[in-house]
Amino acid sequence: MPLPFFHVDAFTDRPFSGNPAAVCLLDAPAEPGWMRQVAAEVNLSETAFVAPIDGGFGLRWFTPEVEVDLCGHATLASAHVLWESGRLARHEPARFHTRSGWLTATWSEGWITLDFPALPIVPGPIPAEAVAALGVIPLMTGTCGARWVVQAADEDVVRGLRPDFARLRALTGRALMVTAAAHPGTGCDFVSRYFAPWVGVNEDPVTGAAHCALGPFWATRLGRPSLVAYQASPRGGWLRVEPAGDRVRLAGQAVTVISGQWQNWR
């Protein structure tokens, strides 16, 4: 039986920018091996699988190679599809049960707000070879779970990064976040980029989960309760970020680029 399938650009208000995600709407939870095959076939940074359950929807995310515990842009894309397709009314929150617990999305005036857990950044050393592969002199290094974090000198350094991905893949890693304060007058408070060659994604265009850590990090340093973030990948994308204790509210927009059906799924 064919299944609805959508290609959505998330954290943007126009096609061909932001972060593309695939969304598969299921009638019931699917077998993980099949979901991995679909994600590899689609070959986007994330494919989301949404199935109705008591109290909301089950949601799982896969890169072309692995299942992940938390993904912001594919959650935003999934909520967008549920409202746009009429499966949820705009006034109804989208509630998702995930490997990171229950996550909620709400819609208001074209913006989708995600309620996600805050993630701490712990200052400390990271492999020198990872820093060398970036080609930067960091102001600070640290970790966020299994991810490495580098604070660069300024926005220009972040935008100009050309990492040596072969050198990075030779290390045992998960992901590498690089961030800096934005220049005054650019419309944002901080910028970032996100590299994850270890899971099949050299550069993720816009990474919601990363801002669960970067939002509190920059809110503390800049002394602001809410911030505007820009992820300076070649596609680029904008987020509104508001830390709230052990949670972070991430807001963005989304555009459906392709809709169709997935054939022969069983």
User: How many discrete structural domains?
Assistant: 2
CATH topology grouping of the largest domain:
Diaminopimelate Epimerase, Chain A, domain 1
Mean pLDDT: 95
The first-to-last residue Cα distance is 8 Å
What would a concise description of this structure say?
With 266 residues, this protein is of the alpha+beta class.
What does this structure look like?
This protein has two domains: 3-115 and 251-262, Roll (Diaminopimelate Epimerase, Chain A, domain 1); 122-244, Diaminopimelate Epimerase, Chain A, domain 1. The relative contact order is 0.19. It has an 18-stranded mixed beta sheet that branches. The chain has helices spanning 32-42, 72-84, 128-134, 155-159, 165-169, 208-222, and strands spanning 3-10, 19-25, 46-53, 56-62, 67-68, 94-98, 101-108, 111-117, 122-123, 140-144, 147-151, 175-181, 190-196, 201-204, 227-231, 237-244, 247-252, 254-262. It contains six helices and 18 strands. With 266 residues, the chain is of the alpha+beta class.
